[in-house]
Amino acid sequence: MAAVSEDLHQRVERYRVRVEAALDRFLPSASQPPVRLHEAMRYAVLGPGKRVRPVLCYLTGEAVGVEPVRLDGPAAAIEIIHAYSLVHDDLPAMDDDDLRRGRPTTHRAFDEATAILAGDALQVLAFEILATDPAMVESAAARLAVIRVLAAASGTGGMAGGQAIDLAAVGGRLSLAEVEEMHRRKTGALIEASVLMAADSRPGLPAERRNALARYAAALGLSFQIVDDLLDVEGEADVVGKPVRADAASDKPTFPAMAGVAAAHARVDALCAESLDALGGFGPEADGLRELARYVATRRH
Length: 301
Prior knowledge:
single chain; 301 residues; Farnesyl Diphosphate Synthase; 2 strands
């Protein structure tokens, strides 16, 4: 990873391996009927990926003192919701993409009907994990808070709503404020949920600390999406892992399209600074979150 220390790189890799094992454990076996559906679910989730959201969940656990074992469920659930959203976003009715993470999208590797069902099944699996994982937070109220965070981030006020705004805006014009609102919902909501699910796994966390983490995550999520938009303009498909120049071809309203590439880079720098400022009340226990914010602002894939 660019712009992170070797120590954080090792921790990120450890968390990536950890969530991969949790995902393999939580997902249905490919040998269990209906076999093709379960194969598609595993294909969608276990393919190559940075696992930014689960890593963010674990790093927040470091910052607030929650053991990784209590976050395996939330970390897996957030990645499963993210994977389901990609399966549906890639469909011909949405973004009509053929490549995802350097390989065929789920509907190309299987078929459209199976991809739709895989996304449906993954969505409910995420909430089943949060409702039943015995290693999670012991307090029922805290478990419900974790579930509520992910539900809100996935719905019309979050990811689904952001995608609807995105689809409706194709070929039209949005103000920069409207583009940012779309990004905060479509991408930022799940990134914020990654942080807040870990925070809510620590019963008794002071409200000011949770609010600071929410500010950190909100800036981080917007930064992540603007960088994604920049990679579509400046990146190469074999590095990014998906088609590039697709936003311009589809006439999508993105931050670089609306404000220009230079302004988009400047906005990312400002959001990174905002994320770091939000963590001013935390000590070294939040250094992982700080380095991740810097990585997100400078990533190339």
